[in-house]
Amino acid sequence: MAFCPNCEAEYRAGITACPDCNIELVSELTPETSVHDKSDAEPVKLRSFRNSAEAEMVSEMLEQNGIRSFVEGGEFAIIPSSFSQEVVVMVDERDFARAVELYEAFFNSESAPSAEEKTDNQ
């Protein structure tokens, strides 16, 4: 058997490349052969948003670019169209610098924290 180091699909003998990822297959999935680092890391705040729709859009854009992210907060409050808590996009700490770079490239914004600001806040 062979495996794709990116999507981790399993292929029968004789297939040498993943047709979806265009990557050469490996004989086994190990931390050394896998494309994605699955070790534990801390999530860090990338940015706050006014609503969950904006946050979900940013999180989806980041995920499409290989950034591990999720949306936190944004529970509905009693007042229609309002939230009881902050809506935040969180990213894996190892992806923070790239997430800031992507966010700024897509949205041309100076409101996302820089990698230096993240370090200063810790």
What are the SSEs and their pairings?
Elements lengths: L1 E2 L6 E2 L31 E7 L2 H13 L4 E4 L14 E6 L3 H12 L7 H7 L1
Antiparallel strand pairs: 1-2, 3-5, 4-5
Structure commentary:
By secondary structure, the protein is of the alpha+beta class. The protein has two domains: 1-39, no CATH class; 43-121, Alpha-Beta Plaits (2-Layer Sandwich), CATH 3.30.70.790. The protein is 26% helix and 17% strand. It is built from three helices and five strands, in the order E-E-E-H-E-E-H-H. It has helices at 52-64, 96-107, 115-121, and strands at 2-3, 10-11, 43-49, 69-72, 87-92. The chain has a three-stranded antiparallel beta sheet with strand order 3-5-4, with helices on one face. A two-stranded antiparallel sheet has the order 1-2. The longest helix has 13 residues, at 52-64. It is elongated and about 50 Å long. The mean pLDDT is 80.
Task: Count up the domains.
Answer: 2
CATH superfamily of the largest domain: UreE, C-terminal domain
Oligomer: single chain
Major sheet attributes: 3 strands, antiparallel
CATH architecture grouping of the largest domain: 2-Layer Sandwich
Calculate the mean pLDDT score and round it.
80
Strand order of the largest sheet: 3-5-4
* CATH C-level of the largest domain: Alpha Beta
Cα Rg: 18 Å
Shape: elongated
Tell me the β content: 15-25%
In DSSP terms (H or I, runs of 4 or more residues), the helix count works out at 3
**What percentage of residues falls in helices of 4 or more residues?**
25-40%
Number of strands: 5
**How widely separated are the two ends?**
45 Å
Structural class: alpha+beta
Spans of at least 5 consecutive residues whose pLDDT stays below 50 are: none
Compressed to H and E, one letter per element, the order equals EEEHEEHH
Output the CATH topology of the largest domain. Alpha-Beta Plaits
